[in-house]
Design a protein that fits this description.
Blueprint: H1 2-8, H2 17-25, H3 33-43, E1 48-51, H4 58-70, E2 84-87, H5 91-107, E3 112-115, H6 122-130, E4 134-137, H7 139-147, E5 158-161, H8 164-169, H9 173-181, E6 188-193, H10 198-207, E7 212-215, E8 226-232, H11 238-248, E9 254-257, H12 261-273, E10 278-281, H13 287-298, E11 304-307, E12 322-325, H14 332-339, E13 349-355, H15 360-370, E14 374-376, H16 385-390, H17 426-439, H18 441-446
Parallel strand pairs: 1-6, 1-7, 2-4, 2-5, 3-4, 5-6, 8-13, 8-14, 9-11, 9-12, 10-11, 12-13
Helix pairs in contact: 3-4, 4-5
């Protein structure tokens, strides 16, 4: 039994003692499946493309082996230059990744830098001139420093593209191709994403040879630790139902997703009118505002965060009580990333989805993703009348077909054998009259 417990821990992955001590201090005891698979591959020096569920621990899976390779003996570092370069699609994701990487890098005596757009490069320039070992950057700001020759990509030994599918969605493919072309073939390259699309695979094959592919779960698989609930609701009652769910479930920290930024503002205003402490996160908010809002939400000073899908990727919110989908996203992968903010790293999570009759098309797609995993909850005060009577929108009421009455046959057909209309004759007229007499008693009496 003791041997099995040892094998389940990080010590079995042959990381240096400094990293193991830091893992213990940070509260990490057992590696996740993706960490067990990826860490040995990267320690061996191989390049890889990795896909796994959101919240599966992919960040530490690539970060730990790369840091170990840079300073395997944990000795003082004499020369500081960029050895590890990590690219992240948004400022929020870059900041979060940097926050994870910094304590582990500093434990090994390595210097770190965060490069992100939205401000002057002066402070970043001075940090890079002093020398750094680990850089986390957003694509556009990274390319600006490379073009200014503040970073020499040929000296980079390990390069990581995080959330690669999001890079494509945000139009950063040309940035990636430019950066890849600046690097040497000897450098170790890692592409990481929750969903690996054909475009991502094509990019990887074009610049990474040989390439190892590690796929732990089928693309689009949602963690089994998440409990899904669906609430049919009249569209005009969504805000009231949202407030009722937060209060009745006593949710202290809840992330609410909406499709449009205008709707995010409206929902947040409605919740504030009910005395909830609410933050807003969408693309039109200034970066500093988004940063302060996220910090306040993580620290518990804000109970509800209303966000568009900008927050659906990679963000790790500790002690999150629930994710509530105010509406169903148009793209099923967005739904997967939304609910992936809960039930992370093997912990249990709750995802609630509010659905109105107008969203029936998106609901059908959602059913294809979740199948029987989703639990229907009908609340009489909020559900549409039709739903109260018959239940869930996945099983729409079948319309009763009107009985098809047999067509009355003409006593005499005016069609020929080929089905074409023929000329009628006097004989046809007499035959019709005789048929009517046979049916009518009055005509028979006259006769």
């Amino acid at each position: 039994m003791a041997e099995k417990e040892t094998n389940n821990r990080f010590s079995a992955l042959k990381l240096n003692s400094v990293l193991l001590d830091r893992l213990h201090k940070e509260g990490y005891n057992d590696p996740t499946p993706v960490q067990k698979r990826l860490i040995p591959v990267l320690l061996a020096g191989s390049s890889a493309i990795v896909s796994a569920q959101t919240g599966s621990g992919k960040t530490l899976a690539f970060l730990l082996p790369l840091l170990h390779q840079v300073n395997p003996d944990a000795v003082p570092v004499a020369h500081h230059y960029t050895k590890i370069f990590i690219l992240s699609p948004t400022k929020e994701l870059a900041q979060q990744l940097f926050g994870i990487a910094k304590p582990f890098a500093e434990a090994l005596g390595l210097r770190t830098a965060l490069l992100q757009g939205g401000g002057r490069r002066t402070g970043e320039n001075s940090i890079l001139k002093r020398g750094v070992d680990v850089v986390v950057a957003t694509p556009q700001r990274a390319l600006e420093h490379m073009e200014a020759r503040h970073i020499d990509m040929k000296s980079v030994k390990h390069f990581v593209v995080d959330e690669a599918d999001m890079m494509f969605d945000m139009g950063f493919v040309s940035y990636l191709e430019t950066i890849f072309s600046m690097m040497t073939e000897r450098s170790q390259k890692v592409i990481v994403s929750a969903t690996v699309t054909p475009r991502v695979v094509k990019l990887a094959k074009g610049y990474i040879k040989p390439l190892k592919r590690i796929e732990l779960d089928p693309p689009g698989k949602i963690a089994d630790t998440i409990t899904h609930e669906l609430f049919p609701v009249v569209r005009s009652q969504k805000e009231a139902l949202l407030s009722w769910l937060i209060s009745s479930r006593n949710l202290k920290r809840v992330l609410v997703f909406v499709r449009k930024k205008e709707l995010a503002d409206g929902v947040a205003e409605a919740l504030r009118s009910w005395d909830y402490k609410v933050g807003i996160l969408h693309g039109e908010r200034m970066h500093q505002e988004r940063k302060k809002t996220l910090l306040a939400f993580r620290e518990g000073r804000i109970a509800v965060l209303v966000a568009t899908d900008i927050a659906a990727r990679g963000l790790d919110i500790p002690e999150l009580d629930a994710v509530i989908n105010y509406d169903i996203p148009h793209v099923k992968h967005d739904f997967i990333h939304r609910v992936g903010r809960t039930g992370r790293a093997g912990k249990e999570g709750v995802a609630m989805t509010l659905v109105s009759p107008e969203e029936i098309e998106q609901l059908v797609d959602l059913h294809k993703v979740l199948g029987e995993k989703i639990k229907e909850v009908i609340l009489p005060d909020f559900a549409p009348k039709a739903i109260k009577a018959r239940g869930y929108l996945f099983q729409p009421q079948r319309r009763k077909r009107k009985p098809v009455l047999p067509k009355k046959e003409n006593p005499v057909s005016v069609l020929n054998k080929k089905g074409k209309k023929r000329k009628t004759t006097k004989r046809d007229g007499f035959k019709i009259l005789d048929a009517k007499k046979a049916k009518s008693p009055k005509l028979r009496k006259r006769k």
